[in-house]
Predict the 3D structure of the following.
Amino acid sequence: MSNKFISHEKLRDWLEDLSARFEVWAPVNTGQDAKGVVVYRPFVRDGALEFARKPVESAKHTVFPRSETLVNFKTGAKDGKPALELHVPEDPPARAVFGLPSCDARGFQIFDPVYNGSGTQGLARDNYYLRRRNATVLIVKACSKVLNTCFCNWVGGGPACTEGADVLATELPDGFILAQVTARGEAALGSALLAPASDSQEKQARKLHEEAGAALCAPPDLSASVSALRGKFDDSAFWEAEASKCLSCGACTYLCPTCYCFNITDEARGVLGARIRSWDACMLPLFTMEASGHNPRTGKIQRLRNRIGHKFSYYPSLHNGRIACCGCGRCIKSCPSSVDIRRIVTDAIGITGTAGLKEQKNG
Amino acid sequence: MAIHEQLKKIILDTLPGVECVIGWGPGQDALHGSPVFMRKPEDVDSFMDTPLGAFGAVNNLALFLPELSGKKVGVVVKGCDSRSIVQLVAEKLIKREEVVIIGFPCEGAADLTKIEKALPEGREAGEVTGAAIVGETLKLSLGSEEISLGLADIKADKCTRCKTPGAVISDAFAGIAGKAPEVRDEYADLAALEAMSLDERFKFWEREMSRCIRCYACRNACPLCVCRDHCVAGSRSPHWITQTDSTRDKLMFQIIHATHLAGRCTGCGECQRACPAGIPVLLLKRTFNRGVAEIFGYDAGMDTEATPPLLTFQVEEAHIKEREWQ
Amino acid sequence: MADAYTLPAYDPGQRNPYLPYAATILEVITETYNIKSFRIRLDDEKAHREFAFEPGQVGQLSLFGVGESTFVINSSPTRKEYLQFSAMRAGEVTTALHGLQAGDKIGVRAPLGNHFPYKDMQGKDIIFIGGGIGMAPLRTLLLFMLDNRKDYGGITVLYGAKSPEDLSFMYDFKEWMARDDIKVVLTIDKEAPGWEHKVGLIPNVLTELDPGADNAVAVTCGPPIMIKFVLQALKKLGFNDEQIVTTLEKRMKCGIGICGRCNIGDKYVCIDGPVFTQAQLNKMANEM
């Protein structure tokens, strides 16, 4: 199938066309001026779509909502006896996410095996995640620039990586060229508004991909991270030095495309209520707090150690060496204390003067 | 000797008597600094060794003092940061004798949001590959492009209304403290908000808070927010804050936070700086600060011996004339 | 077009692991001033009949509107009339649980986690060492072994608590002490009026008891401080780490290895545990 093209002028028409079949999400500037904060929002025709600056948040919540109902319940009594009714919510609508960077799409591949029940040999699969995941088409926008905090190529990605994408969109001066990547992507490309892409457009897109790829520094070899972090586990001086400036807030985890932990709590009003699952973070104190008051991770040092360990050691040791980080760099970019996950991992491995980490002193 | 060199000397002199000295070192790129915990003399090399130097000394390092209480530590402070320490001491949350306070004449600190806003449309701070301060301008490179910004335009708002550029209290001071500037906080930022109708204002907060991801960076970056692991936001019983993704409850938390800081907040602005979603949460705290100043004539963080007005009560308050209420 | 990456499929017919069974409390037993046991039966008769578990597996009990909490199923898989759970009043869920009575509705997600390696224990002498509420997970294995008595060698049960008022499952112990095919030792920390059994800390009584380590397995559960000294005592008695089995408690939510909070390094207590041998624990990250 040949690639398609949609001009900037017709983009909103096409997204509107898609909206008939999908709940369409796209990056939007939600601020008061041209430099407002960019986040993902359901598409509306007059919304302030923005593709120039990278969204502050990842697209994680388009497939894995910040909070969702697992079970609705009704307690109370019926005919004078205690009663209980449980209902599972209906399937959510199909979604299409337009304009997410490749790192965000690859993030879901870290969720996939876990939510498909890898821990229980498939006995317990997470239906809620799987049904949304299967009902969502990801239209990735190739990155035309890289930020100081970008390191997708350290963990197997790239600015125009198609892994995890259903369609790859590349922004040209006059519009987007759209390349189908998976069979699922076809559903998004069946629109009369799309024109076939020309050879010169194809060429321009390839050139952009190459330029963005070349802007990234050569990646260091992280294959030793599993054993290095295991070896560093009890090195309290190492972790104290790395964690001193950490605030133990949840910014890194909640902005991360691969952090998948959650909490389950009940919200009730009288006899009606819902059991919900909502994002949780291993950086927060209550995450592991037991009813007895005992907390196996007493402070920010243990919590940061778990976060890094999970991504670069525990997860890969359970999932064929795949690192649970997609290199989007948001945890670094938005950390109030500039905690740099790249530094911690390279320090643990003992790689000094890492080429991929730009000389920080002089920028 | 340049101020940062003088500071380094003071830090080296301080190190033998303390667990560590907290200062600012390099961050992930030219624009970012980062807290650095100096434990050994060689750690001092990186102090302020960044393109922005003292102008990049953004973080309020007083934040780390309560968690280090019981140990003697040194801390380098801007004037505004020193007010947080004063407040912490006044509330007996840290011990004065456990902290060695190192001050310097602060000329203001950068606001990264303002820098990003000053870049051409579509460009962002993460694209800045180099920076240098030349006189009163910040010269930035974005790849091959060069951009110059006036320092006055990218200074944090709090710096423009700062009346304590030197430390309010210090044990050592690099250079000479300038005379406190004659500035009055006119709360112009609040005026714009208050010019809105109630309905507009509520919509404003709904729009802003809809971006909240509930990471609590605002809370954890606040030096006076000391409940830390025992915050009402995490309490299940009583269940103050819902776990559902509710904009109203997110705003509710901000109001609890601001209320809890009434008469304690020194306006350092770390809550707002820390917010990854760019929510102007400082406006709420400043609303309370203005009220506390008007009603109690109190400005937090100026006197270690003062009792914050909401931690005590007077039978007859000077500015609350209940008996005259109709 | 090649689809190199296979997205995991969504099968609407797949059992929903987050949907609890509705169940009814048949009986509430007051064990101590802060421990109660709950005997429950699934409301769906067919589901109850077909419900299968292994000794040591846990379940999430739901109080709708309050939340879920993890407890070991402490009845035996060989006795199918009801499922028994015991809860010490500590947090929000257990406090609400203590307010329930027979006839009340409850949710249950079970069975979760691994189980005691009871097959590997066949033909061996078994010593149970329980402290306080830590007797609950041992109870299920002990009942199971008593129902398959010929498969096991000598069985010794050492159970202790601070005072006589802190001992649970006394209705079982009365029965067990009357049997001649197991040895039962009860102990309390300090003398108490009318107490006819041992007085002394569990590790000391264990040392005095001196169960042979040869062809034996020790199964222990109790407060961390007790476990610490029991391990030292067992070592002195000649038990190696392969011969010591314990069961862990962690804050859990999903119970199926997804939500991410009960990990110790790359092991998840909810799926790789809660039962571990001491040899396995030695290899795990030091983050208990």
